[in-house]
Amino acid sequence: MAREPVEGRPRGDFVDATIDAGPGYRRVRRRRVLLLIVVGVVVAAAVGGLLLSTMIKSPAEQAAETRPPSLTELSVPVTMQVITNTVLAQASVGPPIEISPASIGAAGAGAQPIVTKIFARQGQTVRQGTMLLEVAGQPYFVLQGTVPAYRDLAPGDEGTDVSQLQVDLESLGYGVGSDTLGVYGPGTAAAVAAFYSARGYQAPEVTAGPKADRGAMVPLGDFMFVPRLPAHLIKFTATVGQTVSASDLTLSVGHPEISGQLNPSERTMVRRGMTVTITRSDTGQSYLGRITSVSAVPQSTGSIAGGDYLPMGVKPDHPLPAALIGQDVGLRITTAATAGKVLAVPESAVFASANGGIYVSRLMGSATVRVAVRVGATGDGMVQVTPLHAGALGPGDKVLIGQNYATVVGHSFVRNIGPVGRPKQFVGPG
Predict the structure, then answer these.
(1) Has this prediction a pTM greater than 0.85?
(2) Longest alpha-carbon distance in the chain
């Protein structure tokens, strides 16, 4: 726009020529402003219409978007496997059997049960004939036997405890000669004397009464019988120079014990000798074992799951780790199993037709074919199937699950109604 000098003003002062443009210029300027406003309104209306069109949907569109997805036919492969039927139960793991002696060391006749030597230490393994300590100059040792030690064993004695002593001496290499099993005779006395001598001691003898001067004896204060060996010395607090008592010594026999709890409703399914899988709750590690007993008398004291249970004896095939003591474990008892691998499908893949026939729905490309089958063993959700027509079904074939499926009731199947449509073709009767 031109700028012109003004007369009477210093040179360099200018004014816009438009100031004197007149009314024509102002009309052009108003038209331009109106045109810009109209264009803005049109653009805004177009943008608004576009946005509004994306938000408004027809009833058909809304129905399409809210319609539930179409049903999907689920399929699983046919397998060859051993079918097992199992029962689940629970159990607690307790400590092994713990045994303490009736007495330790000599008593009476001026002797005090003072510890004079210690040969063992807490935590060690105790075996046949192991000497644990010396009390008042006499050894104290461990022998194996189910009948606890309760008396002195001397020549002329008879009984099961004498038999145990003789068997123990024989196992250690000390023969009892011609003595009758269960009768403490001269041969047994000689074996006892040899046993003591090999350990640096002289075996005591009876010095008075009808048993006097008949050979070596074994005083009650010198030994203890333990049901099973080896055992573990889990408590040993004897101190040299101090008196000792039975409470100072405890042996654990065997390994952690399992006490099972069975639901009374499953009593008829579980029997002695059945295989059981023992599963740790902390690591999931499993151990195999056997059911040794099932009680017929319900109990509720100490119930793991609450309510009544039947106590079960469980013996693991191998000793359980001591870390399991005090924990609850799961039991999976195998109550039945097929002799070998059989053709199997999930129970939900076995269907019942209107006329009572049993079939599976095999997928063959885009077609679904009914294959008539005969059912066999069932267990853990699987069922044995045999096609009525050879070759109609085999391992790896895909079959549908969930349509008009049949559930097992006893050894028969009952029809149920599922969501998936009926198969399109049919193979075999049914």
Answers:
(1) no
(2) 167
